[in-house]
Design a protein that fits this description.
Chain lengths: 124, 143
């Protein structure tokens, strides 16, 4: 343990902005859309840790040297949001893409959790 | 009201200041409504040579954003329409902005509207407007 007192502990996540998110569920899985403007693809981190889905992104855009901030709606340099997944989701098959600052995540339901139509056998 | 603060604060003091500023904004809104909370979110910065405006407008065709400067006021207007969830699907969380938007920023007197440039990248529209030459502080050398 270092003697620095002004540092956040290594295990505590740094504060982040909450990205506005939409979550839509259909029979095959869940689609999540998150607004992450200012996050290029290489500054986006997606993690599944146990039943937690962790979305983190660093804001990265050009700022002229010596610029003084007058107003900031976004006043932290990163986004962070955690969602709790449920058992029937197959977190090993998450597909993600980011374009124009919008993250799209698709989490399919595990095969056994997908709705099955059961044929009714009629014996005469 | 102007706030002079670091663009990327990291300390606990900056965090407290941020909370305090949030409260101040609640009780002392601008004549055009609170700057915070609208879409697109805006960050505004200043350098001796220019005014820099960052509009956080993800998922929009940049050609569909209208940027106008008139009488010292910058207006950003446009539309972001999110598709309705398909039938048979359930919307569990719906926080993303959808619809028409308009945000207005009063500019300082010394900007050159004709010099404005706008770039869109990763969902951020960056508008840079140069200040008039005479307004740029000059260092006068002593002979």
């Amino acid at each position: 343990m270092s003697n620095a007192v002004d540092k956040t502990p290594d295990n505590a996540p740094a504060a982040g902005l909450l990205p506005p998110t939409n979550v839509i569920e259909d029979a095959q899985g869940i689609t999540l859309y998150a607004d992450l403007p200012g996050v290029p693809k290489d500054k986006l981190t997606l993690q599944v840790d146990g039943d937690k889905l962790i979305i983190e992104g660093e804001l990265n855009f050009a700022i002229p040297e010596g610029m003084e901030s007058i107003h900031a709606d976004l006043d932290l340099p990163r986004y962070r949001r955690v969602f709790t997944l449920s058992k029937e989701l197959d977190s090993g098959k998450v597909a993600a893409e980011i374009a124009n600052g919008v993250l799209t995540l698709r989490i399919p339901k595990a095969a056994h959790a997908q709705p099955r139509k059961i044929e009714i056998q009629v014996t005469s | 009201m102007y706030f002079h603060r670091s663009f990327f604060p990291g300390s606990i003091f900056a965090e407290l200041e941020r909370l305090q500023r949030g409260l101040e904004q609640t009780y002392d809104p601008s004549i055009r409504g609170g700057l915070r909370g609208g879409f697109p979110a805006l960050n505004i910065g200043s350098t001796p040579q220019s005014v820099e405006i960052y509009a956080f407008a993800p998922g929009i065709d940049p050609a569909a954003i209208e940027v106008q400067i008139e009488k010292g006021v910058l207006t950003l207007a446009g539309e972001r329409n999110l598709p309705a969830p398909p039938k048979q699907a359930t919307l569990h969380i719906g926080e993303r902005f959808s619809g028409r938007f308009r945000r207005v920023v009063s500019l300082p007197d010394d900007v050159e509207p004709d010099s404005a440039t706008a770039k869109y990248r990763d969902g951020v529209l960056h508008i840079s407007i140069a200040r008039k030459e005479s307004a740029v502080p000059r260092r006068i050398s002593i002979q």
